[in-house]
Amino acid sequence: MRRLAFLHGFTQTHHHWHRVAHQVADRVGGSAIVLPDLPGHGLSSTDDRGIDDTAVALASSVGPATYVGYSMGGRVALHAALLDDSPVERLVLIGATPGVADDAERAERRRLDDERAAHIEQIGVDAFLDEWLAAPMFATLPPDADGLIHRRRNTAAGLAHSLRTAGTGVQPSLWDEIHRITVPVLVIAGALDTKFTDIGRRMTVALPDATFASIDGAGHAAHSERPDDVAATITRWL
Q1: Which of 82, 97, 217, 221 is spaced 20 to 30 A from 198 at the CA atom?
Q2: How many CB atoms are closer than 10 A to CB 68?
Q3: What is the β-pairing status of strands 88-94 and 2-7?
Q4: Domain extents in the chain
Q5: Which fold does the domain 2-237 belong to in CATH?
Q6: Model-level pTM?
């Protein structure tokens, strides 16, 4: 039986993958869905593993599967794909990055992530989400009361820890490593997300067996903005 593992982004939970995951599983047939909450989020709010240990733990618990990751989840999936004897059979990345290649830029991002983590602890989850979702990269994200409820179930301590241990600033750059990922990869970016469209196209060139797909009318969180289109894109590729 084919296994499909869906990894969510920062401030999300496994709930945010439900619509896409079930559509893909129904269409490809004979598939088992795995929907974990990543450390610091949802049911794993007290899990204190960093990004490397998270990748190892997922590889062990999920096993051979197609790994589908959005943003933070995509970065975790990349780490899992680079493990020795990796169980990643296929990889789908949405709005994801192999990290910040420049050392100075990465250090600055780490400083900003540390500041953001302290800010969450100071103002709490609800106020932070109001600020976070008002960022320009989420301008095209539609109102989603149900999804917001699940985001608000996260804890300040969990989100802060996630930034400090799995943020882009603390993650080592994988740009010089991703050529070792030889499994088929589908790289997806929203057409309105120019930053991650550029990153996605660069990854597609660097990966040995990669396909790039753009989702019309979507920004950074394409799976939440155009779930039916994302599900159809993944299904066709599989």
Answers
A1: 82
A2: 28
A3: unpaired
A4: 2-237
A5: Rossmann fold (3.40.50)
A6: 0.96
